[in-house]
Write a structure and sequence with these properties.
With 251 residues, the chain is α/β, with parallel strands linked by helices. It has eight helices and six strands; from the N terminus they run E-H-H-E-H-E-H-H-H-H-E-H-E-E. It has a domain of 172 residues: Rossmann fold (3-Layer(aba) Sandwich).
Length: 251
């Protein structure tokens, strides 16, 4: 995969749009690039690319994903609730502090993972089972999953497989505009949705878009097959990734 295939966004599209910040609980916990202050720096950078003041930011916390665990749910609930509330409150305080830059405070929305199930235009549980069946019958998908587990240093348990699959499927549905994103400023008028995350994509994530498991099209969303890597400041088109050569770098 050659570096020139991927580049920074010059300007965000005109019209109403939503940027989604997908917050990893694990990265919040170990302080790797998703604390409130770093989140603000990412927002400030993207804000410079807005030419039409019709953009909202939806921050989504991936708490419910971590129930794919053998740890008691009661312990996870207490820990995650505390982490999420602290992150949200600190992030909002920074936004208010930067009021001269971020004047439309109701453009910032916050939600947790299980809200996405309710906002999905369909039956997420049924569709996840279809997706899991596709995975179980596809040796190449399973190979990429093994590669991803080694890259992320996570043991490939059944819980971890479900974690990865659900995460990828939800991102896919978000960019295909199959999930409503409540935002008091945009109010359902979004023409485009851009998923953002700090770091390189996993192979299974790219493969999900390449096989397009539910044959979805959101042609009005120019980012329907992409996400923005906040660390490298590159827009990643999943269809341009050669997975047989990809080694989790852009070089």
């Amino acid at each position: 995969m050659k570096d020139q295939l991927f580049y920074d966004i010059n300007k965000l599209p005109k019209g109403y749009g939503i940027i989604t910040f997908l917050i990893s609980i694990a990265r919040m916990e170990n302080g790797t690039g998703q604390d409130h202050s770093q989140s603000l720096e990412y927002v400030k950078y993207l804000n410079e690319k807005i030419i039409d003041p019709k953009v909202g930011l939806n921050t989504v916390y991936g708490d419910f994903l971590y129930l794919y665990s053998k740890e008691p749910a009661k312990n996870l609930k207490s820990k995650f609730m505390n982490m999420i509330v602290k992150h949200k409150n600190a992030f909002q305080k920074l936004i208010v502090k930067e009021r001269s830059t971020f004047q439309i405070h109701h453009a910032f929305s916050f939600s947790v993972w299980n809200q996405l199930y309710l906002n999905y235009k369909g039956d997420f549980d049924a569709d996840f089972k279809v997706f899991k069946k596709i995975y179980n019958e596809d040796p190449l998908f399973q190979k990429y999953m093994k590669d991803d587990s080694e890259f992320t240093k996570r043991e490939l348990t059944e819980e971890q497989i479900d974690f990865f699959l659900e995460e990828h499927l939800m991102f896919y549905f978000l960019s295909k505009k199959r999930i409503s994103l409540p935002n008091d400023f945009v109010q359902g008028r979004e023409e485009w949705v851009l998923n953002c995350y700090p770091g390189v994509p996993l192979k299974c994530e790219a493969y999900t878009y390449q096989i397009d498991p539910f044959k979805l099209s959101a042609q009005e969303n120019k980012f329907e097959n992409s996400y923005y890597d906040l660390e490298s400041k590159k827009l990643i088109d999943f269809n341009k990734i050669d997975l047989e050569k990809y080694n989790y770098t852009y070089n």
